């Protein structure tokens, strides 16, 4: 997959699409917790890549995650 196509796939990810792969997460959760949960839920690489761009902080709710995801759009 070339870089341009990969970037386009990430651009199409909405906060709701990312949240889908966080099913079962317990809050508060760290960035690493989010990544681990997404991996456990078999998230595609594009979702993991977005989560890796998140700030290293504690997320207290799915709303916090959605707000951070919007920054990555």
How would you characterize this protein structure?
This protein is mostly helical and 73 residues long. The protein has one domain (3-72). It is built from five helices and two strands. This is DUF2795 domain-containing protein.
Could you give the count of β-strands?
Answer: 2
Q: Overall pLDDT, averaged?
A: 85
Shape: globular
Uncertain stretches = 1-11
Number of helices: 5
Any idea what the radius of gyration is? 11 Å
Percent of residues in β-strands:
5-15%
Strand order of the largest sheet: 1-2
Distance between the termini: 20 Å
Order of helices and strands: HHEHHEH
- Fraction in helix: 55-70%
Largest sheet: 2 strands, antiparallel
Number of domains: 1
Organism: Candidatus Odyssella acanthamoebae
Protein name: DUF2795 domain-containing protein
């Amino acid at each position: 997959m070339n870089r341009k196509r990969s970037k386009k796939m990430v651009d199409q990810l909405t906060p709701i699409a990312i949240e889908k792969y966080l099913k079962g997460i317990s809050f508060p959760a760290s960035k690493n917790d989010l990544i681990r949960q997404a991996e456990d839920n078999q998230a595609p690489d594009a979702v993991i890549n977005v989560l890796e761009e998140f700030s290293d902080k504690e997320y207290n709710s799915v709303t916090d995650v959605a707000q951070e995801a919007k920054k990555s759009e």
